[in-house]
Write a structure and sequence with these properties.
single chain, Beta-Lactamase, 157 residues
């Protein structure tokens, strides 16, 4: 596939359908996890222009910063701590409309106002999370949840 993304307009659902097809083509046949995470991150950042898009990977009982796009980020997060740590602990996607109201939120950037975190699950175990932050309050909804869960599922066929 070409290294150029086709950025679409239209409804959020249409944008996700377009970018998901392109992400699938980008990672198809590539078995290097870091390369795939990097391309997914760049694709989502380009399409939606969120403040921060990136992955944390489970290493030695911590989430450790992986490929990302956006401002510098926290390097390590403990299980159950912050939105990422809670998503890891609960093995479920978490949407936070206002991060200032989330107990124990880890403020890597004061610009972040809302967040969605999607766990990466293989064989019933969380091996990482996709973390997305927005400068807008309540930027994420069930459309984001459904589509981001679909995108991360491409990593574990």
């Amino acid at each position: 596939m070409s290294e150029d993304l086709i950025i679409s307009t239209g409804s959020k659902e249409e944008q996700y359908q377009n970018i998901t097809r392109q992400i699938k083509a980008l990672i198809e046949g590539e078995n290097d996890v870091i390369a795939n995470l990097a391309n997914i991150t760049a694709s989502l950042k380009q399409q939606f222009n969120w403040l921060w898009v990136g992955f944390y990977l489970v290493k030695n009982e911590e989430l450790v910063l992986g490929p990302f796009q956006g401002p510098i980020a926290c390097t390590r997060i403990l299980k159950g701590r912050g939105v990422c740590g809670v998503a890891w602990l609960k093995s479920e996607t978490i949407i936070v409309d206002d991060v200032a109201l989330f107990p124990g939120h880890i403020a890597c950037s004061s610009l972040s106002k809302s967040e969605i975190v999607v766990p990466l699950i293989r064989e019933g175990e969380v091996f990482g999370v996709l973390d997305v932050d927005s400068e807008q309050l309540a930027a994420f909804d069930v459309i984001d949840k459904k589509n981001l869960e679909l995108i991360v599922s491409l990593l574990t066929p």
